[in-house]
Amino acid sequence: MSMPAASAAAIGSLCFPISRIRPSSFRPRMTAIRSGAGVDTINHVLTKLQKECATPLPVLRHVADSMANDMRAGLAVDGGSDLKMILSYVDALPTGNEKGLFYALDLGGTNFRVLRVQLGGMDQRVIATEAEQVSIPQELMSGTSEELFDFIASGLAKFAEKESGEFQLSQGRNRELGFTFSFPVKQTSIDSGILIKWTKGFAVSGTAGKDVVACLNEAMKRQGLAMQVSALVNDTVGTLAGAKYWDNDVMVAVILGTGTNACYVERTDAIPKSPGKKSQSGTTIINTEWGAFSTGLPLTEFDRGMDAESINPGEQIFEKTISGMYLGEIVRRVVLKMAEAESLFGNSIPEKLQTPFSLRTPHICAMQQDTSNDLDAVGSILFNEAGIESNVRARQIVLEVCDTIAKRGGRLAGAGIVGILQKMEHDMKGVIFGKRTVVAMDGGLYENYPQYRSYLQDAVTELLGPALSEKIVIEHSKDGSGIGAALLAAANSKYKHDF
Length: 499
Ligand code: BGC
What we know:
A hairpin with a 2-residue loop joins strand 8 (185-189) and strand 9 (192-195). By secondary structure, the chain is an alpha/beta fold. Helix 6 packs across helix 15 (480-491), helix 9 (324-341) crosses helix 10 and helix 12 (392-427) packs parallel to helix 14. The chain is globular and about 70 Å long. It contains 15 helices and 15 strands. The chain folds into two domains: 1-9 and 16-88 and 246-478, Hexokinase, domain 1 (3-Layer(aba) Sandwich), CATH 3.40.367; 89-233, Nucleotidyltransferase, domain 5 (2-Layer Sandwich), CATH 3.30.420. Strands 3-13-12-11-14-15 form a six-stranded mixed beta sheet, sandwiched between helices. A five-stranded mixed beta sheet has the order 6-5-4-7-10. Residues 108, 182-184, 199-200, 234-236, 255, 257, 259-261, 289, 291, 319 line the site of beta-D-glucopyranose.
C-alpha cells in the first residue's frame, strides 16, 4: 500500500498520519558535518540513549505501580489523575445469544472501516460478515467536523447499499450500528458521548465538546441514510467485547497501533466517582485512556523535542513513548543527532533525514527484520526514506537505535498491562492471578513488530514471575473491535429482543 508522501506512509497495516507537525517548526537545511569528531561521538550518543531508555526491573515496577495508583486516583474523582478512567456504559457484554443484522463503523486512524454482520445466536454465532476500509484524505483530518462526518456517512451509505441476500433485517426495523470511535470521549450513555480532544494527529475543528453520535446522526440524515447508533464504543471496548464473545476469560483489552489505550472489567462498587452506578452483573468496562499516563517514564531529549513540536505538547506522553505513530520519529531524531555529530552517514545531512516523520515505525520494524550480513534492507530503507548513504557499521548503529526504542516501548507497554492486572487483583482477590486471565491485544504495532511483542511479553514475565505469568495469556484478537461494536449494538438494541 502506498500513499502520497504528504499524507501517510504505510507498511502492512500500520499507518501514521503526519498532520500533527507544525510546518513552521522545520526548515530543510543541508548542514556541513563537523569532520574528524571521531567515532566516540556517535558512541556517546548511543550509550547515553541506551542508558536513558533502560527499563530494568525497578523502573518497570515503578511504572506498573504508578499505573495502578493513577487508575485508582482517576476512578476516585474526575480529573483525579492523568488517566481519565472513562465509564463505557457497557455493563452487559454479548452473551453469544445475539441474533440479527448489525452494522459497525470504526473510526480511529487514517482509515475508517465499515462492517456488517449477521448473527445467528448461540448455535450459529456469526453467520456472515462483510467489511470495507476507506482511507481518509489528509485534508479531512484537519478540516471541519461536518466535512469529516459527511465523508464517513457517505462511505457508510455506499456500503449499506451493497447489502446482499445473506443479510436479513427483521421486519419493521431500522438498521442498527455500533460506532467505534477511538478517541477520548466522555460517554454520557451507551449511545452518546462528548469528544474531549482529538489525538493521533487529528485536528478537526468543531467536534471537541460535541456529542459525536449526534455529529454522525446529522451526517447520516444529510445522506438520507436510515441507520441508528445503538452503541458508541472505544476501540479497546470493542476489542474486549469481541474477544469475550469467544473466550470468557478475557478481562483486559489493549490497543497498540498508531495510538495506544487499554480497558478492563471493573466492579461498579469500586468506582467512587460514580456512586450510583449499578449493573446487573455488578461490573462495567472502564476505558483507561492510558495514552495520557506519564508517571516515572524514562524519557530522553528526543522524546521531549518531539513532544514540544507536536500539536498536543505535554499530552499523551505514554502514547508518544510506546505507540506506532511515534517510534520511527524518535529513531529519526536520534539518527539526525548522530549525523550532526560526525560524518558516519556522509558529509552532509540529507534533507529527508531532517524531515519529521520521514522515518516511520513500519520502517524501523522492517529494518529490524534484516538478517543479511551486509544489512542490505537496512541500507535501502535508510537511503529511500531518509536519504542516507550508509556502510555496514552505520547500519548496525541505526539498528541499535531502533532496538533501543522498540525495547523501551514494548517493555513499558508490558509494565502498563501488569499495572492494570495488579489493580484488578488487589480489588478482586483471586479473580486475576488465581485463574487463567486473557489480555486481548490488537493494533498494527503489536501485530506486525515481533521484537516489540517479545519485549512486551518479557516485561510481563519479569514483573509477575514465571508462575503467575503462566496464567496470564496475552492474545492477539485481530480486528475484534469491529465485530465487538456490532455485538454491542446487538446487546444494546433499541428493539425488544429475546436474547
Ligand atoms: C485514543 C484512544 C484509542 C487509542 C487507540 C488513542 O490516541 O485516545 O481513545 O483507544 O488511541 O486507538
